[in-house]
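Supplementary Methods S3. Complex input for the 2-oxoglutaric acid-bound model.
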Amino acid sequence: MAVSDHVDFPTFMEGVKKRNPGQPEFVQAVQEVAQDIFDFIGDKEEYHEAQILRRIAEPDRVVSFRVCWEDDNHCIRVQRGWRVQNNNAIGPYKGGIRFHPSVTESVLKFLAFEQTFKNSLTGLPMGGGKGGANFNPRGKSDSEVMRFCQAFMTELYRHIGPDTDVPAGDIGVGAREIGYMFGQYKRITNRWEGVLTGKATEYGGSQMRPEATGYGAVYFMQNMLKHQGMDVEGHTAVISGSGNVATHAAEKIVQLGGKVLTLSDSGGFIHDPDGIDQERIDWVKQLKNVRRGRISEYADHFTNATFHEGKRPWDVPCDLALPCATQNELNEEEAKELVANGVKAVSEGANMPTTLEGVKVFHDAKIMYGPGKAANAGGVAVSGLEMSQNSERISWNHERLGEMLTELMEGIHGKCVEYGKQDGGYVDYVKGANIAGFKKVADAMLAFGVV
Ligand SMILES: NC(=O)C1=CN([C@@H]2O[C@H](COP(=O)(O)OP(=O)(O)OC[C@H]3O[C@@H](n4cnc5c(N)ncnc54)[C@H](OP(=O)(O)O)[C@@H]3O)[C@@H](O)[C@H]2O)C=CC1
Ligand SMILES: O=C(O)CCC(=O)C(=O)O
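Predicted complex, serialized as structure tokens:
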């Protein structure tokens, strides 16, 4: 007879902390999921017996490697790269690559863990992975970025493949970096294959992928509002970040008749009481993607706007909040401030931007709160569609992909409601996303036996 190791939630978390010392982000991500999963699996003995949650919270593998490159002054630089392959029960590992000085194994493990649930929620056959390096692209020349990307891929290529692991972009990795990495993969392997997503459309990229995460986060917000008889139109929105996700979230809010008040970067935030309209969003895209400047320049250029150095935008009164920069950028105090100022809904473009204490504030106040693993899943969903297009050697047009993204986000919202609906009509989207994401992966793992 099988022996059931039926531990309770606190004992489970003690084990996670002991096995992952010095990895606070990973422990935080597991804790946020595990509390809901323990409620869900209750006396479902098969999940306990097979130790499913314990297995999902232990990455299949973590590859760590040296990345050595030469800067423009001919100095040799040494960085550390990683690929965390968390779980491939339902499809090839899939998830972005992050280049940022704050990247650690803990950060990538949390992201790969989250990605496993997110990818499951999309309904597409993708497992969870994430990678990156503690490399800071800021201030580097194009040639330096190219040499770094080539050095990174020179090791990474042996761990990935279109049916094995398909990376994409994330913080610090956009179209330019994907181009350099794809070129190097192709050179080393002599194969053109859909091994990366987020490619430019000239060489197999999908229409709509650049917009997908930000637009998707707003569609998720729209679905939450609709569920309570409301809409984006006429509402003010506070957005953090000014990269890919933030600028496209801003664009969709404006298209739906909302008014965007803020954007930010790691230097601070800008507040534009006139509203950041499409022309101004285009200006920010140019600033960030071409000139690679700082958001403070916005306030020099648009004189009604103010720059708040070293600050985050959460004390600006608003109806809607979209954290779109990075993890743990919205804490308990800031969540309380948003609630006190009347925020109605929060949709996370970033991964785990709200601390556990901040999430509790939103739940206690019965604010509509869409966690990143559901709200920002539009990006990886369109990446999944890019994989399909590459393997079929076809390409869908912008309009068709827009429809598919809208349907996918509606589907994810529906799954969250199914598993997260509470008495009185409030939807706990965290619980809904965690349980719906877990169930598919867990049932696949049960089918495989002990592997
Ligand atoms: N790109 C995608 O498709 C997806 C992205 N995400 C998540 O969305 C978030 C943003 O990613 P993306 O827009 O692609 O990345 P970008 O690199 O395009 O932009 C990141 C933005 O966040 C800011 N930022 C990064 N780190 C910090 C920090 N420590 N403190 C304050 N601001 C910071 C950056 O400012 P600065 O330039 O000063 O560093 C920049 O404005 C991340 O959490 C990512 O994981 C989620 C799903 C898919
Ligand atoms: O498109 C992808 O594969 C990755 C997207 C991503 O990294 C994320 O969803 O956080």
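The longest helix spans residues 398-420. The chain is about 50% helix and 15% strand.
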